[in-house]
Amino acid sequence: MSVLLDTSLGEIVIDLHCKECPSATKNFLKLCKIKYYNNCLFFNVQKDFTVQTGDPTGTGKGGDSIFGLLYGDQARYFADEIRPSLKHNKIGTVAMSNSDKDLNASQFYITTKEDLEYLDGKHTVFGQVAEGLDVLDQINKIYTDSNGRPLMNIRIKHTYILDDPYPDPPSLLIPPSSPILVKSEFDLLRPEQGEQIDEYEGMSKEEVDEILAKKDEKAHATILEMIGDISSADEKPPENVLFVCKLHPVTEDADLNLIFSRFGKIKSCEIIRDFKTGESLCYAFIEYSTPQECELAYLKMDNVLIDDRRIHVDFSQSVAKNRQYSQSFTNFSRGGKGNHHHQDGRIEPHTQLKSSSKNNNNGYDMVFATPQRTSLNHDTHNRDRDRSDHHHHPHHRSSSDRGGNRDREDDRRGDRHHHHQRSSDRDDDRRDNRSRDADKRDRDTRDNRDNRDNRDDRDDRDRRRREGEEGADHRDKRRRTEDHHSSSRDKDRR
Description:
39% helix, 19 strands
């Protein structure tokens, strides 16, 4: 006596307790036979507690028993069949859902946790999941809203009766096919499990391309923020700045200023140069007072010939001039060195734009200088100035200066003594190392000599052994020859 439920996530096989609960199991089997449960939603999923289904309306307030469908509303509900031997002590326990005592219809639930003793004695346990506990676990882990309703519709697609011991009532009508799925207004708001969602449905190709381009732009900006190139992914380049490239190396700032000034008031015109050689890098930034003037210059000046070069004009994508960015910039804020916080509340960025004679701090120079190098140059300049003052005004040194000089002289003598001591220690170490190396070479030479002598002795012994064996063979052969001659002579005498 078993039933197979084909759900949106897989198959579940339920074994029924027909002897203990005849009314509940007969009701369940006959509802499955007339395809009453087909397309029913799992409308209530309480994680690690129960999953509930069996209501064709999907609201948790509907459903009729097979007796109500056959005999009318007066037989809509049937009585509880609570048995002490059937408890909620296993995962996959199947029981009837009821709102009160003896009010069982079509709704049922399946437990997703062990030992739910407080449900014993209140609900009729009529089955146990035999196969498909993994499917039940997937339903248990589905995302739900605050009311326990899954965010994606999970349904019982079909029911298959594997064994039915009860005869069909004469008035039972078995439909030839499953009922047509009619979604309620509430169900339309949620996609079906496994349904492919097209978020661009109804949009033109141009609109889709624009959305994808914005997503790519956002992703690239996020990466730049992560590596510290920009302060925020939402930071935008100024709209009143033009980027001009493919310039001739001889073109000067004044030339560009004169040419582009016909389109509006120019706030700054700057050709970017190499910070070491001062040579032009053949691109520039031009800042106008308004974005409208900048757009007009872009439309008119692209691909124009300047100093025998066809220039290219585009809107600037640089954020280097954003004052807020240059003040808050930190070198690798995730794991790198951060800003320097002073006691008076000032914040000095660890990395800042390098200033030069041609480009001020508000320019587009992308060469960075660290405060440590700046402070080092400042300290060196102060020391040189102090030496110069002492050299030109020796009579200004007071007794305290002479005392300080004596202390410094004592320190220098102590340093020379320590330096000499360290030099002596290093010489001793080098001598010890040379002695150890010489001893090792002597040992290696002796070992090689002994190995060579042993090898020569072994070769001599082998040679003597071979000579002795050859001499013995020769003597034996001569003896046999003499014996043969003597025997021949004796025969001749006889």
